[in-house]
Write a structure and sequence with these properties.
Chain A: One of its GO terms (biological process) is lactate metabolic process. The complex is a heterodimer. Chain A is of the alpha/beta class. Helix content of chain A is 52%, strand content 10%. Among the domains of chain A are: 211 residues, Rossmann fold; 68 residues, no CATH class. Chain A contains 22 helices and ten strands. In chain A, helix 9 packs across helix 10. The longest helix of chain A has 23 residues. In chain B, helix 12 packs across helix 13. Chain B has a four-stranded parallel β-sheet with strand order 2-1-3-4, with helices on both faces. Chain B has a four-stranded parallel β-sheet with strand order 6-5-7-8, with helices on both faces. Classes of the chains: A alpha/beta, B alpha/beta. The interface between A and B is large, with 78 and 73 residues. Bound molecules: iron/sulfur cluster (SF4). Iron/sulfur cluster (SF4) binds next to helix 14 of chain A.
């Protein structure tokens, strides 16, 4: 079975490209730093956001019910979906009952998670992603490689080539302004022809029964202003208790995501448009199971800003696809094994446990501790190769007994000093493929101590 | 004052000069150093790889060996963080554990927080890049990580910067991980080495002649990469620099 390490090695093998990817995301991380530094109460905001999320989580059922009540009162129609299949079926039913065959959609990681696009396509409904990055990967037939920057793995030349093939732009053109204009013109036709708009939900407010959608391109607004039907899909964790809580999250979200003070468009939907319909599909799809996991439920606080991906030195050099999961990066590596610890067993190990993700996360999810906890689960579930299990067992046993440890140490040093290079740097030695081994000393510290200071006291 | 010296297993076996330097620095400051010989390893390799059952006996062994001391000092941020932040899973409630956890220190924080040395009179006329190892930085709080919006400080940087003649170079990424990460260095060798080479390039671009840090493991990884491609960089643990500068 291939895991993250193999997929990452493939990405990293093209070193110039991996560096380019790393630089592009690091640039976003630096923008985030500048923006966060401009808010004197940044750390207090993070505390506050984490506290609000923890509170909402503890009373999730109550707030969801309150949301449904208030939303219904305002004329929104609320639907409940246990899993991805139910979600897709509900969306399909709403669309097909109204004879809709052309839909424009703004960014929503939930619909990615549920694989909504292929589901609707297979039933004769055209779904056009209208976020520019999403549209690029959709045209390329790929999933997003990052939750905020879906096409960050593509160079502008590659996008030019893709647009040339699919949108008929000039061959060899790679000027971002030109390409963006072309995409805009193409999307405008799709907006005009759409019979329904699909969006995600960034925040659902229990107190008011309204939903909030944040985009930088205004595409959620374009997609919902023309057609009479708006379907918004949200995970149960998107609930915030009060309208007043929003300010905390809106200040954190854009700064953490892209280093902007606020997203360009923050739209509140508190009623269907006159003569139109607004449906909200509330999806569980594994979230209540996560809620029941004491050590991991904090991960439900995630506002999908992507900051942990931009800061993660492993993500930057292994690319989003190396995670083979809708949500990549540190948060994805925490979430995915919760669904299937064996299939996603390599993800918690795709980390040096540097802790940068915790420190950057606007809602203070202790990501690296959760990664460590997921590792323990994977090991407990038997998801590690026998050779590693044996090495750990034997290593632990040797290290537990001082005399054995000393013998092993002496042998290792002797081997390092005496064995011919060809043997030391054999294929088995992953350390030595790109690195030299340390030059071993003749005498360990403890031997020297014993020789010069030993008094048998220990 | 008396401290028990904890020498991480790979330092003991592969980099004994770092432990010798630690002893010299401590003794020069009038501290009595003892080395409990029954010590082996804190269990971090097993614990970080998720093998809790194999790490637990080592944690218990560590408590047995070091439980009787007021202060335990180690030239390693990550091993100290193991004791302080991760032993709870194995030892919570065990008699003496709280005292052990509170009394276990990384060398530099022991100097600044317990001995309260403002500065060490010494001379070190070199251009040095400080590698801020992640566990020391973000788990022990030896400095302020660049992600957090709080007043900037670095306990290690402060100690070093006060040596005469030293020039601490400015890195473009002051605290990015070097890619060692324990078993990560082997299991994810490709990304690990890429990370390490990027750190080296940053130090070289900043004009460093030497790279120092609180963890031999990170330095061992960086040194291994640098020697393979013959980069003009030397690697020295911060204890070695302090010992030599104050000699
Ligand atoms: S885990 Fe935190 S940093 Fe990562 S996407 Fe979610 S909110 Fe953002």
């Amino acid at each position: 079975m291939t895991g993250h390490a193999e997929r990452a090695a493939r990405f990293a093998a093209d070193e110039p490209r991996a560096h380019w990817h790393d630089q592009a995301l690091w640039f976003v991380r630096l923008k985030r730093d500048r923006m966060a530094a401009a808010v004197p109460e940044w750390e207090a905001l993070r505390e506050r956001a984490a506290a609000v999320k923890a509170h909402a989580r503890a009373r999730l059922a109550d707030y969801l019910e309150q949301f449904e009540r208030e939303a219904t009162r305002r004329g929104l129609r609320v639907h409940w979906a246990r899993d991805a299949d139910e979600h897709n079926a509900i969306v399909h039913r709403i669309l097909s009952e109204r004879g809709v065959t052309r839909v424009v959609k703004s960014k929503s990681m939930l619909t990615e998670e549920c694989h909504l696009n292929p589901y609707l396509a297979a039933r004769g409904i055209e779904v056009v992603d209208t976020d520019l990055g999403e549209r690029i990967v959709q045209l390329a037939g790929e999933p997003p490689s990052h939750i905020v920057l879906p096409a960050i793995h593509k160079k502008k030349e590659e996008i030019g080539e893709l647009f040339h093939r699919t949108l008929g732009t000039a061959a060899g053109a790679s000027d971002p302004t030109y390409l963006t204009q072309a995409a805009r013109a193409h999307l405008r036709e799709k907006f005009l022809a759409a019979q329904a708009g699909l969006t995600g939900v960034n925040f659902a407010i229990a107190e008011t029964g309204g939903i909030v959608v944040c985009t930088n391109e205004g595409n959620a607004d374009m997609g919902t202003h023309l057609p009479p039907l708006h379907v918004a899909c949200m995970g149960v964790e998107k609930i915030v208790p009060r309208l007043a809580d929003l300010s905390v999250f809106l200040r954190l979200l854009a700064r953490s995501a892209t280093g902007q003070p606020v997203t360009t468009y923050t739209t509140h939907f508190h009623a269907p448009r006159p003569g139109g319909e607004l449906h909200v599909v509330i999806v569980d799809n594994g979230r209540s199971r996560l809620l029941a996991e004491e050590g991991f439920r904090g991960a439900l606080a995630c506002i999908r800003c992507g900051a942990c991906m931009n800061t993660c030195p492993v993500f930057r050099r292994s690319g989003g696809y190396s995670y083979a999961w809708t949500i990549p990066g540190p948060i994805g590596s925490v979430l995915a094994p919760g669904r299937d610890p064996v299939a996603h067993g390599s993800l918690p190990f795709a980390s040096s446990l540097c802790g940068s993700c915790d420190a950057v996360c606007p809602v203070k999810i202790p990501l690296h501790d959760q990664l460590l906890a997921r590792r323990r689960e994977v090991v407990r579930a038997g998801g590690q190769p026998l050779a590693k299990r044996l090495a750990m067992r034997v290593g632990g046993w040797v290290l537990r007994h001082r005399a054995l440890y000393e013998v092993a140490g002496r042998l290792a040093r002797l081997a390092l000093r005496r064995l011919p290079r060809a043997l030391l740097y054999g294929r088995w030695n992953a350390w030595g493929r790109q690195r030299e081994l340390p030059a071993a000393p003749a005498e360990s510290f403890r031997d020297a101590w014993r020789r010069t200071r030993g008094d048998g006291r220990g | 004052m008396k401290v028990a010296l904890f020498v991480p297993c790979y330092v003991d076996q592969l980099h004994p000069q770092v432990a010798h330097a630690t002893v010299r620095v401590l003794e020069r400051l009038g501290v009595e150093v003892v080395f409990p010989e029954e010590q082996t390893c804190c269990g971090q390799p097993m614990a970080n790889a998720g093998f809790a059952a194999d790490a637990a006996p080592l944690a218990r062994h560590f408590l047995e060996v070091f439980g009787g001391f007021d202060h335990v000092v180690a030239p390693s941020g990550s091993c100290v963080s193991m004791v302080r932040n991760h032993y709870g899973a194995f030892l919570s409630g065990a008699p003496g554990f709280d005292r052990l956890r509170r009394g276990t220190w990384e060398l530099c924080e022991f100097l600044t927080d317990v001995l309260k040395v403002g500065e060490l009179p010494g001379r070190y006329p070199h251009k040095v890049g400080l590698h801020q190892s992640c566990h020391g930085l973000r788990e022990l709080g030896l400095g302020s990580p660049s992600e957090r919006m709080e007043p900037r400080f670095s306990k290690v940087g402060l100690l070093l910067s006060r040596l005469q003649g030293i020039e601490l170079v400015s890195l473009s990424r002051p605290d990015e991980c070097c890619g060692f990460g324990g078993t990560f260095a082997v299991a994810e060798e490709a990304v690990s080495c890429l990370m390490g080479r990027d750190r080296l390039a940053d130090h070289l671009a900043a004009g460093a002649e030497e790279v120092t840090g609180t963890d031999v493991s990170c330095l061992m990884h960086l040194d291994g990469l640098a020697r393979r491609t013959r980069l003009p960089l030397r690697f020295r643990h911060v204890a070695e620099i302090l010992a030599e500068a104050t000699a």
